[in-house]
User: Fold this.
Amino acid sequence: MADPPDWVGLRVDGVGNRSIGRLAGIHVDAEDGQPRWAVVRLGPLAGCTALPFEHVAEGAGRLWAAYERDWAREAPRFKPGDALTADNELELCAHWGMRDEIGRAAQLRDREPNEITAIPLESS
Assistant:
């Protein structure tokens, strides 16, 4: 299995083996450096969004996520090099159905809305 930074550029397939896009980067927690979001370029004109990192798996030379392509295309957009604020992450959590009481949403609940909480992983 490749390290997550080596995933950049791999195709991301969703439900029904339909391509969601290509991995553009990984965002990590600004404090502990743990991967939080897999940033996916949806297409040349569609921009980028992020899937929960723990919902992405590698296999057969590509990445897999248990999401419908159309649902991914409805997710909030941002630029892959931009840091994410608590509000940005909470918006992503809401889109992907991550409840407020558990996981990343619970970690962000008491943070300041504009506080930077996730940053792009710098590849070495």
Notes: DSSP finds three helices and eight strands in the chain. Helices lie at 69-73, 86-95, 103-108.
